Amino acid sequence: MNNRLKEIFTFSDEFPLIFTQADFWIFFTVIYLIFAVIYRKIKLRNVYLLIVSLFFYYKTSGLFVGLLIFTTISNFLLGAGISKAGSKAVKLLLVSLSVALNLFILSYFKYAYFFVDSVNYLFGTDYQVSHWLAEMGNRVQSVNYFSVDKIILPIGISFYLFQTITYCVDIYRGKLEPLKSIFDFGLFVTFFPQLVAGPIVRAGDFIPQIHRPTVISVQDFNSGTFLILKGLIKKMIFADYLAMHFMDKVFDAPGMFSGFTNIMALIGYSLQIYGDFSGYTDIAIGLALLMGFRLPVNFNSPYKARNTSDFWRRWHISLSSFLKDFLYIPLGGNRKATPATILITLLIVVGVLLAFKSVAAILIIIPIVFLFLLIAIDFEKPRKHFVTNINIMLTMLIGGLWHGASWKFVIWGGLNGIGILVYKYWRRISPWEQSENRLAVMWKIMLTFTFITFTRIYFRGESMEHISVWYRQIATNMDWGNALKVLDQYRLVFIVMLLGYITHWLPVRAKEGIENLWAGSPLALKAGFAVITGVICYQAYSATFQPFIYFQF
Description:
This protein has helices at residues 2-8, 22-38, 42-61, 65-84, 88-123, 132-141, 157-172, 182-190, 203-210, 218-252, 259-290, 308-314, 317-331, 339-356, 359-378, 380-403, 407-429, 438-455, 457-460, 464-476, 483-489, 491-505, 508-519, 523-540. The protein is mostly helical and 553 residues long.
């Protein structure tokens, strides 16, 4: 037993603490028992949860916990400086420094190879990425402690950096008073349930909870345990089981499977990524409730969306909200084009021209750009449309790039942006826009789901080469004659997939009924169901380590 606990509470890069491992639940049981003793003392509770959260991140990411501590301290000091600054210019300087520092750290660890590879392709250069931070650390240590071969992306870096940005920006905007205790701020940044994969928590939503006494009602306990079990089912059955037994095989070698099989794998992937990510956030929200904290809802049945705009109001809600408030609106939103809008647009146009490396493309694209500019200058109404549409597209392109340092993610973001713009104008002429007819609603939902699913080939495809093979198989090798054989060969996979989509599309009232049934059940029945659920999940689970998809972001 002592050796087992030692394994759980010491770092191993092969076995990080994640919600789907038994080690995490042993870890959580131990820290929760201590929490139950000290939770009434608010300051002690906050310091304790901060220590636990830092240890959790250490178990997940090793020495990258040092980077987390650095960003926490630096943004705490910058937030205090913004509040105390006597002039608006100094406040602006400090908030700009906070944003620049966070984006620099994110760019270094996440986008170094993307930027260098893009420059090399556009200009025919041969620059190489140098891991100078690791090299500097080795010189300080006088020993080769850090690997300099490759820059490794710290788990969850985007999530906690975005949270520190919201803190400093909200202080600058006058929406938030800075925290006096660095321990309280550290808890906001590092709170372990949502630290590595969100949801992104706004400072204004979480910080007031830090100072409140812990209150865990019977309803909180019921909702928390229900969310945890629901999240485990989503992740381990509807995500990992399907991926291990079907999707991973197809996407690793799309040319070995028919077009029909590739399409079914992509439909399965839509369920997988939803089960994986929403499963994580369900567990995170449930764990937080058991400790008296409330995290924002991050998903709202996204595959019930009737259009692309509705989808992005239901999917990864905390990120969509962040991009709207901290990117789309600062770019000018639907009001104007800011210098940032013009600069980013020009960079994209120049990049596209350089990427084509074709005189014909330049002769086509430049006149089109000038034509749009002339119309925008001379006519106010078209100008407003252009500005709004450009800001929407920039937001979606940058949102795509946030999801992955690759052009395929930029394409994915761009396709979603196009989908939003097409719907924006289609709804003005659609005779079914206001219709609540059941068939019309089902048609809109399925059309939206189909579009969202097919854009995900750029999200899931291993490379652009794999994506092109996927398209080729669909265009030339659907092999309808063997479709029934595929369904029969993977019948258990497709049964699980069907169950996953049925549960997702259940009416809200039915889902609420299931949760109410859980809440009204005796404790012994809850415990029995939890044990049965755990056994089923782990029977379906792969022995191979399956990280959450959004850890890479």
